[in-house]
Design goal:
By secondary structure, the chain is an alpha+beta fold. It has 3 domains: 144 residues, PAS domain (Beta-Lactamase, 2-Layer Sandwich), CATH 3.30.450.20; 124 residues, PAS domain (Beta-Lactamase, 2-Layer Sandwich); 155 residues, 2-Layer Sandwich (Alpha-Beta Plaits), CATH 3.30.70. It is 46% helix and 24% strand. The chain is built from 17 helices and 14 strands. The longest helix is centred in the N-terminal third of the chain and has 21 residues. The radius of gyration is 28 Å and the shape is elongated.
Length: 449
């Protein structure tokens, strides 16, 4: 195992965000220079994330054809990145295994981001063990399979060596980069390696003979979990992520796996492997934040905002409550960008979101649809509440313009629609109606009405 691992799910969300940004910018016909600038920034983020990992990341069509591959992925399979493009699953797995796979992958056939075992095949025909996590995502309106593949050859070799050679056991045990504990069949600690001492703070003299599950390395609410994991390890290899405790009381996230120690056909004990995943968890949280929030303004991203709208509609349908939608566009935003620069445009978008947050309730949802367009989702509100909300926005906008004291004035065009639980419309229809109403208001402004 590696000290720092990145989960496929985080990489998936970051990649989906990249393609969504590209799609939205193209639809809005934003100036080519701005598209290139945003594209380069997003591509650089994805490149850093994908190229930093030692594991394989593939983007595939649902029928199995490879569309994109990172450098580590090509290296794992013995190809160049260029050779990997347009290969299919038939090129990467043994023939017998490929025959069992469906020709078109759907959500049911994916692992939903959880690593599962797989046997893979290199360019030269070498068969090797891997773990794969897969998920279907929508990129540019098309279903794509994201695969995060880990070569576990070395880990498998280590496990087999521990089982086969009692003489080599001590060397492997003590030199392992992961924290190892050796317990007998009753969970009494027989040995720990240097990394275990480094990670948990206990020496061998302090723990030898103690029961691993007595709470020494467990928070109070994890003691029963520890006992369950010990029983699970008696049935074979396992992998589990949880929280454990250092000698000084510090709690930290850890990945635990375990294997049986079989000597001369008899169970002699268990090897518990502990991996500190603190840094990986921090990266997961950061990637989740990037996936859920618009990087520039801090409001919800388009994809996550629409997911929240879907959840709100389900709640509104059950409780028979309305939902008010406001589709807003910053007037003359392109002119401001062209005249005062993109940095000034970015500042306007940030100020606009701050205005929304100061005007609306905490339960209201603000998401950036793309460019200078925003969607406000107001639960338990109908069109009857719209005039008051418009008035509050208008007053706060006037104060904002006075405070900024710029040669231009920020203004909105607003389109309304609302979810009626007694005459429900789809999300697509609700947004279409609000969008059309917004453009109608913008048109009237241009005509001076």
């Amino acid at each position: 195992m590696k000290g720092k691992e990145k989960t496929e799910e985080q990489l998936i969300d970051e990649l989906a965000k990249l393609h969504q940004q590209i799609s939205e910018l193209q639809k809005l016909n934003i100036k080519h220079q701005q598209i290139e600038e945003n594209l380069r920034e997003s591509e650089e983020k994805y490149r850093i994330l994908s190229e930093a990992t030692t594991d394989c990341i593939l983007i595939e069509a649902v029928e199995g054809r490879i569309l994109e591959c990172n450098t580590a992925g090509a290296k794992i399979y013995g190809y160049t990145k260029e050779e990997m493009i347009d290969l299919t699953l038939a090129d990467l797995v043994p023939e017998e295994f490929f025959k069992k796979l469906p020709r078109v992958i759907t959500d049911k056939e994916t692992s939903n981001g959880i690593f599962v075992p797989r046997i893979s095949k290199k360019k030269d025909g070498t068969i090797f063990p891997t773990e794969i996590a897969t998920k279907i995502v929508n990129i540019g309106g098309k279903s794509r399979l994201i695969a995060y593949i880990r070569d576990i050859t070395e880990r498998k070799k280590a496990e087999e060596t521990l089982q086969k050679s009692q003489q080599e056991f001590a060397s492997l045990f003590n030199s392992s980069p992961e924290a190892l504990v050796y317990v007998n069949e009753k969970s009494s600690i027989l040995n720990i390696n240097p990394r275990f001492t480094e990670l948990f703070g206990y020496t061998l003299e302090e723990v030898k003979g103690r029961n691993l599950d007595d709470g020494m390395i467990h928070p109070p609410n994890k003691i029963e979990e520890g006992k369950w994991l010990t029983k699970k390890s008696l049935k074979g290899y396992f992998y589990f992520e949880t929280i454990r405790k250092k000698k000084d009381g510090t709690l930290f996230p850890v990945a635990i796996s375990g294997s049986q120690v079989i000597i001369d056909g008899q169970l002699k004990g268990l090897i518990g492997i502990f991996q500190d995943i603190t840094e990986r968890k921090k990266m997961e949280k950061e990637l989740e934040r990037l996936a859920h929030y618009d990087v520039l303004t801090g409001c919800y991203s388009r994809g996550y905002g629409l997911n929240l709208l879907e959840q709100q509609i389900k709640t509104a349908k059950r409780k028979k409550n309305p939902i008010l939608l406001l589709y807003l566009d910053v007037d003359k935003f392109k002119e401001i960008n062209d005249t005062y620069g993109h940095k000034e445009g970015d500042r306007i978008l940030k100020k606009v979101v701050q205005l929304f947050k100061s005007t609306l309730r905490e339960i209201d949802i603000i998401c950036r649809i793309g460019g200078d367009e925003f969607l406000l989702i107001l639960p338990d509100n109908s069109l009857n509440n719209a005039p008051l909300i418009r008035e509050r926005l208008s007053k706060n906008l006037e104060k904002l313009n006075q405070k900024l004291d710029k040669p231009y004035k920020i203004d909105f065009s607003i389109g309304l629609s609302y979810y009626n639980p007694y005459n429900p419309l789809s999300i697509e229809e609700l947004i279409r109606i609000a969008d059309e109403n917004m453009y109608e208001e913008k048109k009237k402004k241009k005509e001076g009405k």
